[in-house]
Amino acid sequence: MHRFDTYLVCSTTPHRAVRRQLKRATSIQFNSMPTNEHRTRAVESLESLGLREYEARCFVALVQLSEGTAKEVSKVASVPRSRVYDSLEKLQNRGLVDIRESNPRKYRGVSVDTAIQTLENEFTNHLETAGENLTELQVSPHNGDNEFWTVSGRENVTERGNELVDRAEREVVVVLPEDDHVVDISLAWIQRALDAGVTTLVDAPTPAVRHRVESEVPGAQVFVSTREDGTTLGRTLLVDDHAVLLSVIDEPLPTVQEETAVVSDGGVGTRIASLVEDVSKVRRNELVAESTTAVDAADDD
């Protein structure tokens, strides 16, 4: 899947969040009025989809009021009356608000589902336009020969790993740590590689992790290798013997983990991948030998 196509698939997530928060903001939960938290989250979600703060507040107010005058919207939304008119006009231009010419003028927000669909269409159009134009501007794919690139943040490391797995043609090797949460988010790399139909090898630190991988993503070839105690290494990803991602997990505060990775694709990456792959091959050969011995012993019995 193309990088921009991935963004388009993922772009529906904020829309679902907006719909959920708006509906909570207009409903009675457990015999009580909706909380300020629901209103705040709805406003923040709408802002993430392109509305300005006052526009988002006015729309949430109209969702709660069903319909109202500028004075009523101003009071519920906590927006100065002088800014309400401008905000409501902009919402009307975006197809989110209807106006009834009366004295005083009244405003009505479209249904939550209609609003979300309208914003989703706008958001998708922006993504498609960005993708098309950026593709035209792109000179060539990144060439990482003899270079390291640093990636910070767990989500960013995961996404960069997804890119490497998507380019795999023959083999993907995932080296896992003992950290349960890191194993959780690394399972997606394994499943992604299996879905692509390439050979998928997993180096687990313990038999327990090996069992978990075999249970949750069946199809991967999993083996166990002993690690040194106290290691701070995170996860490692090797793709086709030339691309490598090496991460380190740091804990600046108790219960707070930060992940940083170095990525290389090409000359340096090939050499590092080769070194790690040599170790993996030794363990795989041992695994095959152990399996053969077990079969022979069963035959003797």
Automatic annotation (TrEMBL):
InterPro entries: TrmB-like, Tscrpt_reg_TrmB_N, WH-like_DNA-bd_sf, WH_DNA-bd_sf. Residues 46-111 form the Transcription regulator TrmB N-terminal domain. Pfam families: TrmB. This is TrmB family transcriptional regulator. It comes from Halomarina oriensis.
